[in-house]
Amino acid sequence: MGTLNWTNQPSFQARLLDSGIIHNLGWNLPPEELAHVPEHWLMYPEPDKSLHLLLGMVYVFFFMASMIGNGIVLWVFTTAKSLRTASNMFVVNLALCDFVMMLKSPIFLYNAFHYGFEMGHFGCQIFAGMGSMTGIGAGMTNAAIAYDRYTTITRPFDGKLTRTKAMFIILFIWFYTVPWTVMPMMEIWGRFAPEGFLTTCSFDYLTRTFDNRLFVGAIFTFSYVIPMSMIIYFYSQIVSKVFSHEKALREQAKKMNVESLRANQQQNAESAEMRIAKAAITICFLYVASWTPYAVESLIGAYGNQALLTPGVSMIPACACKLVACIDPYIYAISHPKFRIELQKRLPWLAIKEKDVSDTQSVATEQSAAQPQQAQT
């Protein structure tokens, strides 16, 4: 029985086209399209139509959540003057990557609701190309966010990035992604191919030629290992710096026989800074959790036991990397104080309760200035 098709063993016998008999994946594709499908997937029975419909409904949710969430982030961060900082340029770039990544959803939905490789090779190239650009771009942007948090927290006086430097980093990120999209799309090195239920596409990690294995190793290093190493290094340095700073403050307070050396204003500022840092750490953790399955799958396909990669199993990483594109904007909406304030101004019906620290300080300043005048009168 090919019920869920998650762990089915491959069927090496050709399937008959009689009514009621299960066919192998790709049984109804013309030869010119069949040539682009890795032989590994053709050995498995095609999934039940209900699984296609289920994944289609999941992608509809992903698409709606990403369009709304990332759309709001792009709208608020690009229109609010208070949010036009160098650090937030990385936030906008990450939201743009997530937004564009989910723009390819209609290709998957068309394939899913037609139960197969309906958009063909051309649709596959568009789907995989957009995924490559935005996926690698999101990874490098997460590394840039980690670097920005690292310089801001460890060197608060001279470590903040300028808008010009941030723009150069963003341009570098997009140029960094171009080769890993153009080379497989043009089949200069590697190629894009359908995977799993033949409704999604990614780079070909199943063809075991020397060139393709080398390509898988290279893209694994440049799109996963490098940004992952940067993220781990910068956040480990942040944690180390925060712990040493807090330890020094406690020791100094103990010498002065006081409970804390922090003023209320400093506590508010540091609280907002730490909330932003926590949001960035959470997003980077989600990036690690969502893209690690894809990295592991590609290594297994190129160097390991390919029997582990059934069509159903291969769809799990495809869904995981889409899920993070939906969650990112809502984490910023919850954790970024100034973003919440601006969103509160634009969409008051959301009933967001966020106090504006600057307004509170200005009111306190006006009251303190008015007291001497009242005393004089």
UniProtKB/TrEMBL annotation:
Record flagged with keyword Coiled coil: no
PROSITE patterns: G_PROTEIN_RECEP_F1_1, G_PROTEIN_RECEP_F1_2, OPSIN
GO MF annotations in UniProt: G protein-coupled receptor activity; photoreceptor activity
Domain (G-protein coupled receptors family 1 profile): residue spans on this chain: 69-332
Stored InterPro entries: GPCR_opsins, GPCR_Rhodpsn, GPCR_Rhodpsn_7TM, Opsin, Retinal_BS
One of the record's GO cellular component terms: membrane
Subcellular location: Membrane
Membrane topology, record value: Multi-pass membrane protein
Alphabetized Gene3D superfamilies for the sequence: Rhodopsin 7-helix transmembrane proteins
Chief localization: membrane
SUPFAM superfamilies according to UniProt: Family A G protein-coupled receptor-like
Keywords: Chromophore, Disulfide bond, G-protein coupled receptor, Glycoprotein, Membrane, Photoreceptor protein, Receptor, Retinal protein, Sensory transduction, Transducer, Transmembrane, Transmembrane helix, Vision
Annotated stretches, region: Disordered: 356-377
Family assignment from sequence similarity: Belongs to the G-protein coupled receptor 1 family.
Biased amino acid composition, Polar residues: 359-377
Listed transmembrane segments: 51-77, 89-113, 125-145, 166-183, 214-235
GO biological process: phototransduction; visual perception
Protein name: Ultraviolet sensitive opsin
Record keyword Cell division present: no
